[in-house]
Each structure stands twice: as C-alpha cells, then as structure tokens.
Design a protein that fits this description.
Number of helices: 6
Strand content: 5-15%
CATH topology: Rossmann fold
CATH class: Alpha Beta
Number of domains: 1
CATH architecture: 3-Layer(aba) Sandwich
Distance between the termini: 6 Å
Strand order of the largest sheet: 2-1-3-4-5
Number of strands: 5
Order of helices and strands: EHEHEHEHEHH
Oligomer: single chain
Largest sheet: 5 strands, parallel
Structural class: alpha/beta
C-alpha cells in the first residue's frame, strides 16, 4: 500500500494583507521524504496553487473545499506545520482526523486544543521531526495505525 501524505501548514495565518508566510517548509518536507521515505506519495497543496492568495472567491472556495475533501477521504498521513495558528490547517486536521488518518504536527503550540487532541505526535521543530523519521518512529506510528 502506498501511504498518501498531505502537507498542511500555515499560509496566511492571521495576516490581513495579501501576503503568505514562507512556504519553504513544504519543499523541505517534500525533498526530505523523497530522500528518506521515497515510497510515500506526497501532496503539497501549495505546489499546485502558488498564486492562491490572488484567487477570486469561486476558485478560492473550490480549492479550499477540494483540499478539505482530500483530507477527509484520500490521505493516510497529514503533516501539519504550524509555527502559529492556522485556521485552514485546523480544518484540514479535523477532516483528516475524522477520516482516521495519522496526524503529525510540527509546532511549539502544544497547549492548543486542535494540536493537542487531533495529533498522534507533536514535534517542537523540523529537526526533531526529521530525527523521528530517520530513526523509524514515523514508520512505526503508521504501522500502529494500519497505514503502512
């Protein structure tokens, strides 16, 4: 079985202007998975929607809802990168949780209820997450939940 991964994470966060947070974490995660777990099928919603901040209402709504449907029906593992609160990521996490997907968060917001109660594992930073992948913890977590 191919494990289907969705990279969720902050895009606009709490910004009110048409500006995104850095999306470098997405490329970093995708490249890391290619090197360490090439059997995974990784989907990065930003890679296919790099101009999303400029989408009109119709296209924006369709994209938002499509990604949430994916999280609710098509994925096995959701990686949530949330250095600060992200409403879109919270919705994706909820849909993935309802779908029975494994949810791993990379954040220091361990007191946030969405992070706390929907994540199977929480890592404070990218380095500790990568270490867990390299030492087999992520593979064991996937196996534990029948997502191998």
């Amino acid at each position: 079985m191919t494990v289907r991964v969705f990279i969720a994470g902050i895009m606009q966060g709490s910004r009110t202007e048409k500006q995104l947070h850095s999306q470098d974490y997405r490329t970093e995660l995708t490249d890391f998975f290619r090197e360490t777990m090439p059997e995974l099928s990784v989907y990065d919603p930003f890679a296919k929607n790099q101009d999303s901040v400029n989408y009109g209402n119709e296209k924006g709504k369709e994209t938002f809802l499509r990604h949430n449907r994916m999280c609710g029906t098509e994925i096995d593992l959701l990686i949530a990168y949330v250095p600060e609160a992200s409403m879109g990521t919270a919705v994706e996490m909820w849909e993935a949780w309802k779908n029975g997907a494994v949810i791993v968060s990379i954040t220091e917001m361990t007191r946030n209820w969405v992070i706390r109660y929907l994540s199977h594992r929480v890592f404070p930073d990218m380095e500790s997450f990568k270490a867990s992948v390299k030492n087999g913890e992520l593979a064991a977590l996937l196996a534990e939940h029948g997502k191998e």
